[in-house]
Amino acid sequence: ELVRRLQPRSSSRAIPATSLALLAFLGAGYSHLSRDKHDGLCFGETVKQALKFILAAQNADGAIGTGLDHTLATLALSEAYGLTGSQIFKEQAQRAVDALCAAQDTDGGWGDTIDTTWAVMALKSAEISDLPAPRTVLDGARRRIRAVTSDDGRAGRVSKGDWDAKKQSHDTATACGMVARIFIDRNKQDPVLEKASALIAADLPGAKDDDIGYRYFSGHALFQFDGPGGERWKSYWKAHREAMVPLQATAGDGCRRGSWPATRAWGGVETTALGALSLEFYSRYPLVFSGK
Q1: Could you tell me the pTM of the whole model?
Q2: DSSP states of 71-98
Q3: Does pLDDT of 8 surpass 60?
């Protein structure tokens, strides 16, 4: 019901908006069985209806929409199964994972660097949730990420060196490439990670930024690499919270209260979900590197 009321600006955005909203609920620990309520809305019922929508949208070949829509839906289904262990999600979640693998491009990616990183995250979630995928799929993703990354650690969105500081407010592709490398290789000694970390630490999101994708992936990258005690992460986290929290709506009717405004790239549901996810790093994401 909550996802329905927070309908995205276009019906064509229903799958990614619902998937991201689900990820935010699941990341906060709410499942289809939860009984917690707010303003008369039951979170468990919200999650249940959202899952029903995504499952009903799945085709016979396992696909749930196309491109990034399918990737986000796969990630949401994998997280739902991993959180609950409910067998009612397993078969369709596995078919979604299989379809994601089948959709991989010949260069090892799924479109650009950002979309490829979402796919890597979905596959790593599937691995944790015991939804198998061929290792060769992640090998291909590694090849794609390396092909677009320069020696200075900066990743291109489509090709090496295509980042333009005059046209792009933040280096989102570099943050994404860093996340992908961490999840694929689990190698903290990878020199690219240190270089990319320095680039991101020097480009903290500000109060007027509306690039919610950069906020999410840059925080994700630094939290995983630097750990909660790292100086780069602590500087990022302070700047992010101080900038992000005041942007949240504190007034308005119903679901508008507590939301973040839509941007050029994302609708209001999506920005709100990504905003919540960008504040869930401590509770949601286990650290890849031990001892941090």
Answers
A1: 0.91
A2: HHHHHHHHHHHHHH--HHHHHHHHHHHH
A3: no
